[in-house]
Each structure stands twice: as C-alpha cells, then as structure tokens.
Amino acid sequence: MSKQKINGEELVNLAKSALEDVKAQDIQVIDVREKHSLTDYMIIATGTSNRQINAMAEKVREIVKLQGVQPLGEEGKGDSDWVLLDLNDVIVHMMTAAARQFYDLERLWLGAEQSRSADGKHHSPENAHSYSENLKDRG
C-alpha cells in the first residue's frame, strides 16, 4: 500500500499541528521558496526546555511518518538547545527561547525582504556616497 506524496503546505500543517500538540510556543512559518532552493518552508518554534524540544521533534517525526514522509535528517538531538528536523520541503527548527533570540532566524529570513528598498533609491549613484559626504561635512 503506497501513500500519496503530500505537498509542502500539507506538511507545514502536519508539523504545525504536531508542535501545537506538545505545547510549542511562538510557532512561525516562513515561506522561503523565492529565497532558497533547498526547501520551501521553514518552521521555527520555541520550547521551554531541552526535554520539551526533544518531545517536539519526536512528535513531528511521528506525525509525518504516519503520512509516509521519512525525515532526511536531524541535527541537535539530546541536550541541545536547537533541534533541526529536515523534512525536505519543510525544515523545522525547534529552539529554546535563548537560542531563538541569539540566532534570530526570523530576522535572517524575513529581514532580507523587509530591508530591500521598494524604489532602490539607496542604490542610486547620487545617493551612493551621501553617508561618507555627511561625515566629511562634520569633520
């Protein structure tokens, strides 16, 4: 009996539901299809302890396996404050609050698009050296 392959969005919903079942906090889903070729989505969730993070990873692994999805890899098992579960189309990051704040993956992945200027004026020739010109004027 072969199971039909589930798509990335269905996998996100499964993983998110599994994380919610074990009381993961601040679950964030980031669509990285336009930014990254290795995966489609990243899920970032906070656990209150290393023990909870391991329970979160175990629950996600268990739920996706029931749907015929075999994780490609896992990093950080044991007493780590960051466990990564690679589900191919979805990468799940489960972290302590301290690790999440330190690595700030949301800023890394969301900040890239938020920091781009809509009109590109900051890259225009007339604005290229305005910062250094302002410094000269002060000195």
CATH topological fold name: Beta Polymerase, domain 2
CATH top level? Alpha Beta
Number of helices: 5
Structural class: alpha+beta
Q: What is the fourth-level CATH superfamily?
A: Beta Polymerase, domain 2
Order of strands in the sheet with most strands: 1-2-5-4-3
Question: Helices and strands, in N-to-C order?
Answer: HEEHEEEHHH
Shape: globular
| Rounded average pLDDT | 80
Strand content: 15-25%
Question: C-alpha Rg, in Å?
Answer: 20 Å
Number of strands: 5
Uncertain spans: 112-139
The CATH architecture can be given as 2-Layer Sandwich
Largest sheet: 5 strands, mixed
Q: Gap between N and C termini, in Å?
A: 76 Å
The total tally of domains equals: 1
Helicity level, as a percent range?
40-55%
Subunit structure: Interacts with ribosomal protein uL14 (rplN).
InterPro entries: Iojap/RsfS/C7orf30, NT_sf
Family: Belongs to the Iojap/RsfS family.
Pfam family, one: RsfS
Descriptive notes:
The protein has 139 residues and is an alpha+beta fold. It has a single domain (6-135), classed as Beta Polymerase, domain 2. The chain is 41% helix and 21% strand. A five-stranded mixed β-sheet has the order 1-2-5-4-3, with helices on both faces. A hairpin with a 3-residue loop joins strand 4 (82-86) and strand 5 (90-96). Helix 1 (8-21) packs across helix 2 (50-66). It is globular, with a radius of gyration of 20 Å.
